[in-house]
Amino acid sequence: MYIKQTIEQLAPYVPGIQPQMDGRVIKINANENPYPPSPRVKEILSEFDYGQLRYYPDATSQRLRTLIGTHFNLSSGHVFCGNGSDEIIAYLFQICLEEGDSIATPYPTYTLYKTIADIHRVHTEYVPTRDDFSIDIEALINTGAKGIFIANPNAQTGLLLPLAEIEYLLQNYEGLVVIDEAYIDFAPATASAYELVARYPNLVVLRTFSKSHSLCGIRVGFCLAAPMLVDALDKCRDSYNVSHLSQLMAAAAFEDQLYLQKTIKQVVATRERVRETLISLGFEVLPSQANFLLCKPQHHTAGEIYEFLKSKQIYVRYFDAPRLSDQLRISVGTDDEMDVLLEQLIEFL
Ligand code: PMP
């Protein structure tokens, strides 16, 4: 009655199970970082004068924008901060896409692009990845869509699209190009497209504090883009879209690049060790450049393994969809958590 029919018909975004966390639960189903955020975040919280909360936060997250801009050798006018990168994805639809337009995105990928497209009555053209899950840039361009969304490394697979292919896309396509680098910090440093932002006005590089900075809980993301796009994002954002504490904590984490590099190195080392062990146990495992591993068992169904692990309070993500039939996605936890997981798998297999 009160709700638009298009909204009633929407399939909402479904997150992984969020169990009550106690000492025994191993939650490796949402690509969260197993390590705490930088100790500087704790310091900021303990020093914080709670009386400040009666004021609205800085509406433009200016200090954070300046810090980020300087780090990436761009002006703060190239940076926009959001309440999670998910919010920025929604704003991009508001500023760049009209009802009835299309976006193109590889399949499989982060499902939220389609969820938000549906909200805005924008059609999603899924372009299947090749048999090896690599992304077909030419096919994406050939859709003629008004915008192209690529997660790099790609969600669900963890595979990295080489920078040369992103540049090829930008040279041959004039629509909106969103490169979602939520997981890029777990890939080699040269993989990011951020340097192309200064040269291509249609490029948006999306980042988040949720993964490598271990700050899912504060909901801060940012994007790097031409000032014209940033200005447009500023026109339609919530009046105070990033909370005071979130701005402070994100800035503290961002300034601690040493801690960031240390935890990334640890996650990557664990990822490689676990991948090799899973392969030796008979799993097919894609060579992920992210903080998770997509894998398929040989002698059991992934569904059986998922249920078994769940009964042991180990939560991984299970997929059973086209191209992702009967697969497990395992986020990289601490070495201890991964040892428990591997022991349980050995017992089950
Ligand atoms: N992009 C991708 C590819 C993701 O997997 C995620 C996390 N699920 C996000 C964006 C969202 O990140 P945030 O927490 O900043 O909204």
From TrEMBL:
<comment type="subunit">
    <text>Homodimer.</text>
</comment>
<keyword id="KW-0028">Amino-acid biosynthesis</keyword>
<feature type="modified residue" description="N6-(pyridoxal phosphate)lysine">
    <location>
        <position position="211"/>
    </location>
</feature>
<keyword id="KW-0663">Pyridoxal phosphate</keyword>
<comment type="similarity">
    <text>Belongs to the class-II pyridoxal-phosphate-dependent aminotransferase family. Histidinol-phosphate aminotransferase subfamily.</text>
</comment>
<keyword id="KW-0808">Transferase</keyword>
<dbReference type="GO" id="GO:0000105">
    <property type="term" value="P:L-histidine biosynthetic process"/>
</dbReference>
<feature type="domain" description="Aminotransferase class I/classII large">
    <location>
        <begin position="25"/>
        <end position="345"/>
    </location>
</feature>
<keyword id="KW-0368">Histidine biosynthesis</keyword>
<comment type="pathway">
    <text>Amino-acid biosynthesis; L-histidine biosynthesis; L-histidine from 5-phospho-alpha-D-ribose 1-diphosphate: step 7/9.</text>
</comment>
<dbReference type="InterPro" id="IPR015424">
    <property type="entry name" value="PyrdxlP-dep_Trfase"/>
</dbReference>
<protein>
    <recommendedName>
        <fullName>Histidinol-phosphate aminotransferase</fullName>
        <ecNumber>2.6.1.9</ecNumber>
    </recommendedName>
</protein>
<dbReference type="InterPro" id="IPR005861">
    <property type="entry name" value="HisP_aminotrans"/>
</dbReference>
<dbReference type="Pfam" id="PF00155">
    <property type="entry name" value="Aminotran_1_2"/>
</dbReference>
<dbReference type="InterPro" id="IPR015422">
    <property type="entry name" value="PyrdxlP-dep_Trfase_small"/>
</dbReference>
<dbReference type="InterPro" id="IPR015421">
    <property type="entry name" value="PyrdxlP-dep_Trfase_major"/>
</dbReference>
<dbReference type="GO" id="GO:0004400">
    <property type="term" value="F:histidinol-phosphate transaminase activity"/>
</dbReference>
<keyword id="KW-0032">Aminotransferase</keyword>
<dbReference type="InterPro" id="IPR050106">
    <property type="entry name" value="HistidinolP_aminotransfase"/>
</dbReference>
<dbReference type="GO" id="GO:0030170">
    <property type="term" value="F:pyridoxal phosphate binding"/>
</dbReference>
<dbReference type="InterPro" id="IPR004839">
    <property type="entry name" value="Aminotransferase_I/II_large"/>
</dbReference>
